[in-house]
Amino acid sequence: MYKNLDILSCPLPEDIERVIRYGDLERAYRLIDLRLKDGRVPDILKQRLVFEKRVLDELPSVYPMDEEETLSRFCNAVKGFTREELQKLTDDGTCDWIYLQGKPHYHEDCVDTAIKTRPELQARLTDAHAVRAGLEHTRLLDGKIAEMKKNGSAACRFRMKTTVTLKPEAERPGERIRVYLPLPVDDAQCRPGAIVTSPDGAVLSDETCGQRTALWDVEYKTGMCFSTVAEWTIRANYCDPKPEAVLSRQPEFDTEEVLPQIRFTPFIRQLAQELAGDTQNPLIKARRFYDYVTVNCRYRYVPPYAFKTCIPEYFGAGQMGDCGMHALLFITLCRVSGIPARWQSGLYVPPWGAGMHDWARFYVEPYGWLYADGSFGGSAYRAGNLERWNFYFGNLDPWRVVYDSALQQEFVPPKKFMRYDPYDSQTAEIEYEDRGLMRSDFRVERILEKCEDL
């Protein structure tokens, strides 16, 4: 378990929180520095404030666009887009934003979010190729699901090259650097194969690590690249679970809290009770939790998870968030209700590329471990594809790689500084002797070299 997270549960002083909400970063830095010099301030708060400065450093790059630039990007992507539409998408939560110096600034991916989740915008895209690509993706995915239903399973073999390079401003030639890249784990549907690393000499953690990595610990030279070429296979079995077949005996493992994110707060307890109603059947309960995250909550690109102190509450109350937030709320609702649930994540890897993705697993006798992909289920529901919506309760497609079999796991060997993403490992983690790097300090490129059916 990766336990260096207590500081994220430490509340910020009200005056600092207030100026951060307004977006007055200069004053926030000043107030934080005053606290750091104050001998009365406890160490845990000082650690949180140091981390908060890292968060503040990232805010302008995560929310880079003011209202006019955001409107311009929408107008370039969507035919006839208006300022009134932007206001509506802002008010209903589709477009994530914050204040910077008292003025709204929008998330770097807010245009992609709106297009991804709003069919009425997809029909007005200026890029006809994007429209055709989206339709072709849907056709192929539905075909793969039909294949699984017909044959009982589907399997694929993959090979992918992943490369990380530092941006020039983050380069420090001659200094020691530690670079971690994720690798496929041996878990459930995923079987890792051959691994090739460059430069030679990377330390590979065991295939059964909860979050497996390749680690380079070397002297950095200008322009260095670090890469892996990894092979793996996925076998996805189809299951159509029935409530009437559920056994009265159910296990009790994987039902505990995992602080600071999987917390049984009063809100989570009451939400779980409200959704479950009077049923005692764990499969029906899990389905009601799945329905909540897919029907009532919308997908939205979000800032890094370390920015949020309780993601299940953030997503459950705000009803906006990305795939990992769908998964964390589902897992937390299951666990607080006595249903075993686990995290799984890595990449979604269709034949033409790869992108980071998270999902959940839950356990019900006699079926054992089942899957719940809330974001894929939610997109199917919004598109009116109820067959695909139902499929992602219990099942996954085979276009995946599993990097993480559990949430919040320590790297082997461990990282010295707090990770940029302390919960998940899907991209890269890098540190020098005196500090860890942020996501804006480096680039990650993925090239899918093989995706073939077995």
Question: Could you explain the architecture of this structure?
Answer:
This protein has helices at residues 14-22, 25-36, 43-62, 67-77, 83-91, 110-117, 119-122, 128-151, 266-276, 282-296, 311-318, 323-336, 374-382, 386-391, and strands spanning 65-66, 97-100, 103-106, 153-166, 176-182, 190-198, 203-204, 213-219, 225-237, 298-299, 320-321, 341-348, 355-364, 368-372, 393-394, 400-404, 429-432, 442-453. By secondary structure, it is an alpha+beta fold. The chain has four domains: 6-62, no CATH class; 65-122, no CATH class; 153-236 and 404-453, Sandwich (Immunoglobulin-like); 239-394, C8orf32 fold (Roll), CATH 3.10.620.30. Strands 15-14-13-12-16 form a five-stranded antiparallel β-sheet. Strands 6-9-4-18 form a four-stranded antiparallel β-sheet. It has a four-stranded antiparallel β-sheet with strand order 7-8-5-17, with no helix packed on it. Strand 10 (298-299), helix 11 and strand 11 (320-321) form a beta-alpha-beta unit. Helix 10 (282-296) runs antiparallel to helix 12 and helix 10 (282-296) crosses helix 13 (374-382). It is globular. The mean pLDDT is 95.
